[in-house]
Design goal:
Blueprint lengths: L5 H8 L5 E3 L1 H14 L4 E6 L8 H15 L3 E6 L3 H4 L14 H8 L2 H5 L8 E5 L1 H4 L4 H8 L4 H4 L3 H8 L6 H17 L3 E5 L3 H13 L6 E5 L25 H9 L6 H8 L4 H13 L4 H16 L2 H16 L9 E2 L5 E2 H7 L6 H9 L3 E3 L2 E2 L6 E2 L5 E5 L3 E5 L1
Parallel strand pairs: 2-3, 2-5, 3-4, 5-6, 7-13
Antiparallel strand pairs: 1-6, 8-11, 9-10, 9-12, 12-13
Helix pairs in contact: 11-12, 13-16, 13-17, 14-16, 16-17
Length: 401
């Protein structure tokens, strides 16, 4: 297959990113790749410190997919070993370490989630425990000798902690070295990462030079704020939109973002062109459109990417029915009772909540209704014989028959 021209590739690659380092090198790599019909090896790593991927992760996964569509090879590194160290990026204290079993459990669903975005055709998936766990102390000393303490302290996170007297454990210095060593093993031509990862990506360039390899280019993308519009999107901040959210959940969460994030979500979470993005900006700044309507279109676009257009339209209809018309959605799951049952047991067994504790907490917060009446008693029993609608939170419904 003939590769797209340099200009065609750069026009797509340069959208929705922060920086290319160095851009001249990447353009040279792409030119040689086109001339020799030889794909670049494009690396992206993610540590399974938690089991879910969200659309913040997908900013770079989607960039990786663009390289795949141009015929390049995507190298997805599951950092099951580096996750045990804990990336110190953005942390003002030492992170608690995970066990290899914990990281492997979290990694089980990563491939399924990542391939929602990535093509399986020109994709290599590797676990960095395959090589990092086999290094002996001699190997680690050799790698560590390639980088100085002064260079490590150039990193903002370390500098701030050092100057404020907060401890830095020696194993944290090993994280960027381990990530950089990954680049040597997979022979990456280019690595993708968030702006907060720039130091780690540059370490990879430096180590590749030390080991006689051509240094990788790097592309960084800004971090995506979550639905609260303040903190970085993450499960721990409870402001994330998961890749595995159903269409209704995904649509509703996108609508909950503040208006100030509409343009950023369009740029980094959709396939919008530069021209159309400029039009969105002009409309929002001029006041010619209601931001709510622009946000509805944004939500449909995002749902279409991870599901399809039909699901996106249906999600909007369900949202309008639920929040505007105050009606119950059509596709509410049902459960039949054969005997008197505790309400919290119904909520847990039908996966409306994760535990009895969460069920009691939701009831206490007034977030549980039966036939639109708030429930205040966490020990209430539900008798069979009457049909009713159980609502938990804003979007979780169950028909009890």
């Amino acid at each position: 297959m003939k590769m797209a021209s340099l200009n065609e590739q750069m026009d797509i690659i340069s959208v929705g990113i922060e920086e290319i380092v160095p851009q001249e090198q990447l353009e040279s790599q792409l030119s040689k790749s086109i001339e020799n019909n030889q794909p670049l090896r494009v690396k992206f790593g993610c540590d399974p410190s938690r089991p879910d991927l969200h659309i913040g992760h997908a900013v770079l996964l989607r960039k990786l997919r663009q390289f795949q569509d141009f015929g390049h090879t995507a190298i997805l590194i599951i950092g099951d070993f580096t996750a045990m160290i804990g990336d110190p990026t953005g942390k003002n204290k030492t992170r608690p370490q995970l066990t290899i079993d914990e990281t492997k459990d979290n990694a089980k669903t990563y491939i399924d989630q990542a391939t929602i975005v990535l093509s399986k055709q020109n994709l290599e998936i590797v676990y960095n425990s395959e090589w990092l766990s086999k290094l002996d102390f001699n190997d680690i000393i050799k790698i560590a000798s390639k980088y100085t303490v002064a260079q490590m302290l150039e990193r903002d996170d370390f500098t701030k902690r050092y100057n404020s007297g907060k401890p830095i454990s020696l194993h944290e210095f090993l994280y960027p070295l381990a990530q950089g060593y990954d680049s040597i093993i997979v022979k990456s031509d280019l690595e993708l990462g968030g702006t907060d990862q720039k130091f780690n990506l540059l370490v990879g360039r430096a180590l590749q030079k030390e080991y006689g390899q051509d240094p990788q280019s790097i592309i960084t993308a800004p971090l995506l704020e979550g639905t609260d519009g303040i903190e970085k999107m993450s499960k721990s901040n409870d402001n994330y939109i998961s890749l595995t959210d159903n269409p209704d959940q995904m649509y509703g969460k996108v609508l909950s973002i503040p208006d100030t994030l509409i343009t950023k979500y369009y740029e980094f979470c959709t396939n919008i062109s530069k021209k159309d993005l400029e039009l969105v900006n002009v409309d929002l700044e001029s006041g010619n459109v209601n931001p709510r309507d622009t946000k509805r279109a944004l939500a449909r676009d995002i749902v279409s990417i991870y599901h399809n257009e039909n699901y996106a339209v249906k999600a909007q209809e369900n949202f309008d029915k639920l929040f505007i018309s105050k009606k119950v959605p059509d596709d509410v799951p049902e459960v039949s009772l054969s005997a008197e049952t505790k309400l919290i047991e119904i909520m847990v067994s039908n996966k409306m909540v994760a535990s009895n504790g969460e069920a009691k907490r939701m009831i206490k917060q007034g977030a549980v209704k039966i036939d639109d009446e708030k429930i205040s008693d966490p020990f209430i029993m539900i008798e069979p014989g009457n049909e009713s609608i159980l609502k938990v939170g804003k979007r979780r419904f169950l028909k009890i028959k």
